[in-house]
Design goal:
With 443 residues, the chain is mainly alpha-helical. The chain folds into 2 domains: 173 residues, SecY subunit domain (Preprotein translocase SecY subunit); 211 residues, SecY subunit domain (Preprotein translocase SecY subunit), CATH 1.10.3370.10. A hairpin with a 2-residue loop joins strand 2 and strand 3. Helix 2 runs antiparallel to helix 8. This is Protein translocase subunit SecY.
Length: 443
């Protein structure tokens, strides 16, 4: 406890860090207040009790409950994330975007500008679908077309404002702005999930003992998730010695840390998008629903979870392959006079790195698939659906990863001012603590 208070005191003594933390907290407070401001012309009482399940429930969690409340921030940062994913994929397939990625700071600014424009377009389309599908006539106090036009304009402006707040946290706060906004939205739903599970258990379904066991299981799952995110395979790299005058350069051994889960949460997001297709088809053709469509619409069914796990494994290999280029790593290593001991430079090096990536990606993808289906397994075992979301899936991965990144940012400020870090046993490693070998995890 004394170590904790000493660390907090050291954090408060660093003026720059103190200002950044207070600025971040202020922005997060504005975001949470905005999530409770209902769209003009909507009766909030008619929206009470509308539970969101499946993908809509996940979107509502990411938005901190704004989605179900018809808030001005109802769409949250998801349109921006969608735009970022599209631009990232275009950077792999389209030569123009590949050129921009190689132009350094100027190219990055152009990509950011294009991403913002694409975010506006995606937000406008999602706003149309949100107004038409989520806000029924009974909840509207203003008649169309005035309501639809005003709601779509406000939703688009709300998402752009949220994106601006995320960028401000990144620039003037403690970093990871967009990720922090998502994390705060997820944490905001945790009290509701805990209270719902407590009420459910306290009414006779297992009692408080089962409630305590669930918390122990949740702690074990969080520790397991930390191991998956932190797990790396270090490849030693030896650099040749260079003597210039009386000074020696190089000759040191470094390591390329290849992450066990280099794809982050992207495989789960892609797989969830595909698994949402059967239920979408069922909504358009309710009379044509078969037992197959029904089983794939039930996210607790065996068919759904088995298919979901297989898709995650496949997408993990795919996303890792397009984000990590062993050939480029081998060429960069050769240009800098580096080599892997016992492996010839050039093609042999790239083949060796590729084989290591393949070997660590398989267990990483299996563990990721297991984490993704844990919420469904928790629901089958009797856990309340609101609380079960925190037993795994995208929400837990984002929570753990963002917390590690934030702690790493704070620790870097402490170490730069010659204070002790946050831990006695070693440095905290977040997702940003990667080498050129890893493209990092996108959110």
């Amino acid at each position: 406890m004394k170590k904790l208070f000493t660390t907090l005191s050291n954090i408060w003594k660093i003026e720059e860090l103190r200002v950044r933390i207070l600025y971040t907290l202020l922005i997060l407070l504005v975001y949470r207040i905005g999530s409770f401001i209902v769209l003009p012309g909507v009766d909030p009482r008619s929206l009470e009790g509308q539970a969101k399940e499946g993908l809509l429930g996940l979107l509502n969690m990411f938005a901190g409950g704004s989605f179900s409340r018809a808030s001005i921030f109802a769409l949250g940062v998801m349109p921006y994330i969608s735009a970022s994913i599209v631009i990232q994929l275009l950077g792999i397939a389209v030569p123009y975007f590949q050129k921009l990625q190689k132009e350094g700071e100027s190219g990055r600014k152009k990509i950011t500008q294009i991403t913002r424009y694409l975010t506006i377009a995606i937000t406008a389309l999602q706003a149309i679908g949100y107004v038409k599908s989520q806000i029924g006539p009974e909840a509207r106090l203003i008649s169309d077309p005035l309501f639809s036009i005003s709601a779509m304009a406000i939703l688009t402006a709300g998402t752009m404002f949220v994106m601006w707040m995320g960028e401000k946290i990144t620039d003037k706060g403690i970093g990871n702005g967009i990720s922090l906004l998502i994390m705060v939205g997820i944490i905001a739903q945790l009290p509701y999930g805990i209270s719902a599970e407590f009420i459910s258990r306290n009414t006779g379904q297992g009692g408080l003992i089962a409630f305590f066991i669930e918390f122990v299981a949740l702690f074990a799952v969080i520790m397991f998730t930390v191991l998956i995110i932190q797990g790396t395979r270090k490849i030693p790299v030896q650099y040749a010695k260079k003597i210039v005058g009386n000074k020696q350069y190089g000759g040191v051994r470094q390591y390329i840390p290849l992450k066990l889960n280099a794809a982050g949460v992207m495989p789960i997001i892609f797989a969830q998008a595909i698994m949402f297709i059967p239920s979408t088809i069922g909504q358009f053709f309710p009379s044509a629903q078969s037992s197959v469509l029904a089983s794939f619409s039930d996210y607790t069914s065996v068919a759904y979870n088995l298919t979901f796990a297989i898709l995650i494994i496949l997408f993990t290999f795919f996303y890792t392959a397009i984000t990590i280029n062993p050939t480029q790593m081998s060429d960069d290593m050769k240009k800098n006079g580096g080599f892997i001991p016992g492996v010839k430079p050039g093609k042999s090096t790239s083949d060796y790195i590729d084989s290591v990536i393949s070997k660590i990606t398989l267990p990483g993808s299996i563990f990721l698939a297991l984490i993704a289906i844990l919420p469904s397994l928790a629901i089958i075992l009797g856990v309340n659906s609101q609380f079960a979301h925190f037993f795994g899936g995208t929400s837990l991965l984002i929570l753990v990863a963002v917390v590690l990144d934030t702690l790493q940012q704070i620790e870097s400020y402490l170490l730069m001012r010659h204070y002790d870090g946050l831990m006695k046993t070693g440095r905290i490693k977040g997702r940003s603590d990667v080498s050129v070998a890893s493209a990092g995890s996108a959110i």
